[in-house]
């Protein structure tokens, strides 16, 4: 406990034991030991007997003095470190040399740790001693650990790994949240709010102003993204940079070539829209990638692969298409739309780019007719020339049917609502990731407008999509929330058949996440579902023995709710008022068959 005192010329318990063993007069030896090792203040000796009269033990007195002196010394260390004296670090190093032998003494350890904390460069020998001792390493401040971590990537990885796992668990928990709402979903929290999460704050603290540690974390994120394809690592990459930006850590922000791009994109995510001015700024950053710096595109693509960025880009594309429709303009005539597609394409291709280490993206070329047009690869060009017109034709079909329904009965034809989708629409959903992303968000858009006819037409087409994107957690999380707007439609067998038999139940047995999302939705809508159909669903959705616990728990909760509903039917839910955010183009509507403006 008192190891290290002899090195400083201070007597310890062993010295006292030896003195008492060899002396002939123990009381005199004790007095002598107290005189030599007590507080060397002559005026104090005459005052000590008064403490004895008050029954205050000498140990208690000396301990209180020691505690006070320790606090004063620690304050003094901080003042020296924060001062402007050129010799301040030399003074601290001298104090460290004197105090370090006592680092394992609990009463002195805080002083040693305080000195270590305030030294910008701790002597390597001392760092190795701290790193070798688990207890000392655990006790030292993060400022000291940074100096250890920057030369020991494996140890830093051990510290960061649990935080990265926790981050992914939290994101997945949010996607499977028991809340089911269009107003409060996965994308509802603002970027600033998300950056206040425990993991982001801890990582930010661990990195501090250390560029080397920041680069290590980015490398961890790239590696994990490649290994797992989990897009939440892309979110963390952007959140971490913006967290350092919030703290004005210029040492890192100034050297990260993605900083200004991410800052501008963060503002767009906050507004859930990329306006013309910011679109031009983002284009400037992309065009500014110079020859020899193409590797930056890997990081930019990762930032654009962040689901929050993708969500903002696709919502902006949908709004842009609405404006083009109202102006009778073609998609290829809009420079802003071309840029949005360019960024969406870059984000969707992030994994391939980082995996192949081929850092290329479609380039912009100017023409007199179109001002700026994205020179996609042939397949990407067809997204604009083939897929978008096919998607527009779906909108036109819906609008034509709606107008037909408003005509006087004698002028109506026998036109029925279309059930078949254009071949190009289906094909691009299956073969092109950018087209698929837009197609999925179009489905969400019509669900938001409560357009049952269009939804029934589109949902079956989502059974086969590029890389099963329609069965991803993010899309299913959003879709189940949007379907709450059509809760009354679940009372019909036709609608239930399309949603469940035509889409969700086609893959629930092979994809457990689909099973979970289906149960999540039924927990909220079970009382709206046609009773005979609900009975069939409970049998179909009963979890097999090998299912995970979350699925079993959700099923149990559903059965409990159904049982409770039988005993006392709940009151009819009121549909909340909504700000749809997409500002649909005004077209004639009827109460029975809403249209699908885009």
Automatic annotation (TrEMBL):
Coiled-coil segments on the chain, per record: none
Gene Ontology terms: biological process: negative regulation of transcription elongation by RNA polymerase II
Annotated region (Disordered), positions in chain: 563-598
Taxonomic superkingdom: Eukaryota
Low complexity compositional bias, start-end: 584-598
GO cellular component: NELF complex
Pfam family, any one: COBRA1
Protein name per Swiss-Prot or TrEMBL: Negative elongation factor complex member B
The organism of origin for this protein: Anabas testudineus (Climbing perch)
Gene this protein is translated from: NELFB
């Amino acid at each position: 406990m008192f190891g290290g005192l002899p090195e400083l010329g201070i007597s310890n318990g062993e010295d006292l034991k030896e003195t008492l063993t060899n002396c002939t007069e123990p009381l005199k030896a004790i007095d002598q030991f107290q005189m030599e090792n007590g507080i060397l203040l002559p005026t104090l000796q005459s005052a000590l007997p008064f403490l004895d009269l008050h029954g205050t033990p000498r140990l208690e007195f000396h301990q209180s003095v020691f505690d006070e002196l320790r606090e004063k010394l620690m304050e003094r260390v901080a003042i020296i470190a924060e001062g402007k004296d050129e010799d301040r670090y030399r003074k601290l190093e001298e104090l460290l040399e004197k105090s370090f032998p006592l680092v394992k003494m609990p009463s002195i350890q805080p002083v040693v740790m305080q000195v270590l904390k305030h030294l910008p460069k701790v002597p390597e020998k001392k760092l190795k001693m701290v790193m070798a001792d688990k207890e000392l390493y655990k006790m030292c401040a993060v400022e000291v650990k940074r100096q250890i971590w920057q030369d020991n990537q494996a140890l830093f990885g051990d510290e960061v790994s649990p935080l990265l796992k926790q981050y992914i668990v939290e994101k997945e928990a949010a996607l499977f949240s028991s809340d089911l709402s269009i107003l409060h979903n996965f994308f509802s929290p603002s970027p600033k709010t998300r950056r206040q999460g425990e993991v982001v704050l801890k990582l930010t603290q661990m990195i501090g102003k250390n560029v080397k540690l920041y680069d290590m974390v980015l490398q961890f994120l790239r590696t994990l993204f490649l290994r797992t394809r989990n897009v939440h690592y892309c979110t963390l990459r952007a959140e971490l940079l913006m967290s350092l930006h919030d703290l004005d850590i210029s040492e890192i922000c100034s050297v990260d070539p993605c900083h200004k791009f991410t800052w501008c994109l963060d503002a767009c995510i906050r507004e859930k829209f990329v306006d013309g001015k910011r679109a031009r700024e983002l284009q400037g950053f992309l065009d500014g990638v110079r020859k020899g710096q193409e590797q930056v595109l890997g990081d930019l693509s990762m930032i654009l692969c962040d689901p929050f960025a993708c969500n903002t880009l696709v919502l902006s594309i949908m709004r842009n298409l609405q404006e083009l429709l109202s102006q009778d303009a073609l998609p290829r005539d809009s420079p802003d739309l071309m840029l949005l597609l360019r960024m969406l394409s870059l984000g969707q291709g992030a994994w391939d780019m980082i995996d192949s280490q081929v850092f290329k993206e479609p380039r912009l070329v100017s023409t007199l007719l179109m001002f700026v047009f994205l020179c996609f690869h042939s397949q990407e060009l067809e997204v604009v020339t083939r897929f978008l017109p096919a998607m527009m034709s779906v909108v036109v079909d819906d609008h034509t049917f709606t107008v037909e329904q408003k005509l006087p009965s004698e002028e109506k034809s026998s036109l029925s609502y279309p059930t078949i989708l254009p071949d190009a629409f289906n094909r691009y959903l299956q073969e092109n990731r950018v087209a698929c992303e837009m197609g999925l968000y179009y489905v969400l858009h019509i669900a938001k407008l409560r357009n049952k006819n269009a939804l029934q037409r589109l949902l079956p087409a989502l059974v086969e999509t590029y890389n099963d994107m329609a069965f991803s957690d993010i899309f299913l999380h959003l879709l189940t929330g949007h379907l709450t707007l059509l809760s009354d439609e679940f009372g019909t067998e036709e609608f239930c058949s399309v949603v469940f038999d035509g889409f969700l139940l086609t893959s629930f047995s092979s994809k457990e996440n689909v099973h979970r999302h289906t149960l999540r939705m039924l927990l909220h809508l079970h009382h709206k579902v046609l009773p005979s159909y609900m009975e069939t669903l409970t049998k179909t959705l009963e979890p097999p023995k090998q299912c995970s616990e979350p699925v079993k728990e959700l099923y149990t909760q559903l059965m409990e709710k159904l049982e409770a509903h039988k005993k006392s039917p709940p009151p009819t839910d009121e549909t909340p008022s909504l700000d749809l955010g997409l500002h649909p183009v005004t077209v004639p509507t009827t109460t029975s068959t809403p249209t699908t403006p885009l």
